[in-house]
Amino acid sequence: MTAIAYLGTGLLGSGFVEAALGRGDSVTVWNRTREKAEALAALGATVADTPANAVRGAERVHLVLKDDEVVEEIVAALRPGLGANAIICDHTTTQPALTAERAQRLNAQGVHYLHCPVFIGPAAARLAQGIIMASGPEALFAQVKPALEQQAQKVVYWGERSDLAAAYKLMGNAFIIGLGALVSDVFTLAAGSDVSPADSLKLLEFFNPGTMLQNRGKKMSEGDFAASFELTMARKDLRLMLETAGARPLAALPSIAARMDEVIAQGHGAEDFGVIARDAVTAARVP
């Protein structure tokens, strides 16, 4: 039986705890709102009064917190009870530069810290599904890899650069949030055309934007803006979309139109609409 601790038992943290208890781990939990932690006691978790008490005797400490500020606060609070060989697996979504600084500082101070953000929802956490990413000292990752593989369906190690998992987590969430915003705008266009949201999704029965995303994304990343859908024509279609939406609120399309206008004004209207990424791609290529 492995002794572990979970600090942060909101929806996701609770899901992880339930799965760990189901695997037979000995789990101590702490949450700022104690009631959320106490709900797990009926399943076999031990509830601690403080972060330091929660981590005493734990081989692994899992953090599922709000942001960088809270991570710093809780790590400082737990350190008096942290064992010399315990490893902190921080699942919190955090800012890459702050993550790198924190990882370097803590590991230099003898605190074994590994950033391990996830693409997992509460329901998936209970079923040990989803993805855990990690970056940081390879020796630490090797020690926790078997446990992480029990915690998720897939584990991806990005190497020793401590900010990379945080960066890829934000990029992944940009896909999730950005695509969600575009779905919202599709529903708005549907409303402007007297089509139900459910019927608008019928497009996905034969039109796969995921394939386009991979193919066009690869060309964009390589700086290949040879036109297959000219920017000026794409901007014309954006105009039609905005006209169809009318006064209805839109989440993403107005910002995309504004970016297109900027790049057209720079003289790139005859190139592929993927040229809106030219500044990001050019910056990445500068040595």
Automatic annotation (TrEMBL):
An annotated Gene Ontology molecular function: NADP binding
Signal sequence segment: none
Active site per the UniProt annotation: K169
Coiled coil regions in record: none
Gene3D superfamilies, sorted: N-(1-d-carboxylethyl)-l-norvaline Dehydrogenase, domain 2, NAD(P)-binding Rossmann-like Domain
Chain segments annotated as transmembrane: none
Keyword line: Oxidoreductase
Residue span, 6-phosphogluconate dehydrogenase NADP-binding domain: 4-159
Protein name: 6-phosphogluconate dehydrogenase
Organism of this sequence: Gemmatimonas phototrophica
Lineage: Bacteria, Pseudomonadati, Gemmatimonadota, Gemmatimonadia, Gemmatimonadales
